[in-house]
UniProtKB/TrEMBL annotation:
Gene3D superfamilies: HUPs
SUPFAM superfamilies registered for this protein in UniProt: Adenine nucleotide alpha hydrolases-like (SSF52402)
Family: Belongs to the universal stress protein A family.
Occurrences of domain UspA (ranges): 1-140
Record-annotated membrane-spanning stretches: none
Underlying gene: teaD_2
Source organism (scientific name): Sporomusa silvacetica DSM 10669
Coiled coil: none
Protein name, per record: TRAP-T-associated universal stress protein TeaD
Length: 145
């Protein structure tokens, strides 16, 4: 049913909870899992500036650490799990990657690291929910009421 599962990972506890749910589903449906981290291009935040390559390398290293932490959830996973780093607006890239690579399910947390940022830019999970071409499972943590 769900051959390929995409799990956006931003380093938040909610994203890690989504990865745990994705693992359960992957075990049940014999699915592959891809953990994706989106590096939001700093040029979106600081238009008309040149972004130093050192900053980009630092963002990439941080993204790798975030994905490595999520990979720990899959330590003894019998299926296939891989990681992917993409660049751009998180909501847009998640939707685009889902279509480009033909994912059959997205599993993600309801809110990520910055609730305030989500209010200012629009919720990433809300964008994905309304624009993705495949089913999207939004994981709500217990502290969200």
């Amino acid at each position: 049913m769900f051959e390929k599962i995409l799990v956006p990972i931003d380093g938040s506890d909610r994203a890690l909870l989504a990865a745990k749910y994705a693992r359960i589903l992957a075990e049940k449906f014999d699915s592959s899992v891809t953990l994706i981290h989106i590096i939001q291009n700093p040029a979106y935040i600081m238009p008309d500036t040149i972004i130093p390559s050192l900053l980009i390398k630092d963002l990439e290293a941080s993204g790798k650490r975030i994905l490595d932490k999520a990979l720990e959830i899959f330590d003894d996973f019998d299926g296939r799990v891989n990681t992917l780093v993409e660049y751009g607006h998180p909501g847009i890239r998640i939707v685009d990657v889902t279509e480009e690579r033909d994912y059959s399910l997205i599993v993600m947390g309801r809110r990520g690291l910055s609730d305030v940022k989500g209010l200012l830019l629009g919720s990433i999970s809300n964008h994905v929910l309304h624009h993705a071409s495949c089913p999207t499972l939004i994981i709500k943590s217990n502290d969200e009421g």
